[in-house]
UniProtKB/TrEMBL annotation:
It holds the Pfam family Pentapeptide. This is Uncharacterized protein YjbI, contains pentapeptide repeats. It comes from Lentzea waywayandensis. InterPro entries: 5peptide_repeat, Pentapeptide-BTB/POZ_domain. Gene3D superfamilies: E3 ubiquitin-protein ligase SopA.
Amino acid sequence: MAQQGQLNDRFIRAVEQLGPDSAGGSAERRIGAIYALEHIAHDAPVEQPATVEVISAFVRSHAPRTGSPCPAIPATDVQTALSVLARRRTLEIDARPDLNNTCLKGANLNTRQVFVGRGGDQVRRDALLEDTILTNADLTNANLSDANLKRANLNGAILTGAYLVGAKLGHANLGRADLTDTSFLFADLSYAHLADATMVRAGVAKADLTGANLTGVNADQAIFNEANLTGADLTAAILTGAVLARTNTTRANFTKADLIGADLRSVDLTDTILTEAKLPQ
């Protein structure tokens, strides 16, 4: 009981330092409070949902809203909060960060940690952002490389020029997202929802798009070379000038897709659906 009471006191103090009454406090004080919440979540995993909720609310209230004037990179305390959210440990606890409609341009969410495990082997821990709510968030030029974003909701998000190299986006929702010039090299986008997304000049080389929904996507001049499009749905997709050399299009659906000027070198279209598709001459 005494230990729980101490934990509650620590939590209350940290929240007070982040709350409205401390708005005039220093960034250093807020950063200290964020780290205090991280330690609480580590010491008492059952408190992780509460700490994630408080830190997420801090980001939403201290970062500009999407569409408002926004700095090229987040303020130091906001970036600290994002890093703490991203480097959480994997737990079977419902702790889902909610960063919807938040402007996080230039944010660094690549928090890879490499350490020696109990057996002496090197262990890699990437940013843990599974199931995170990022609907309509502005992540222009953000670094999300190697991040675990499985099942994350990025519907309508702005990811122009963002880095998602090696990111894990299986079953993620990227519908209507702006992915112009975004890098998905080696990313896992299997069964992701990308319907009506803008992928102009996006780099998707060697990415896994197995079973992905790319219906209506605008991927003009996008680079898909050596990507895995097995079973992907690209109905009515715009792929003008796109590079699809050496892609795997087995059972992929390109019905009514526009492939004028696309590079299809070394692509076996035998088991590909091309009904009413516009093919390169």
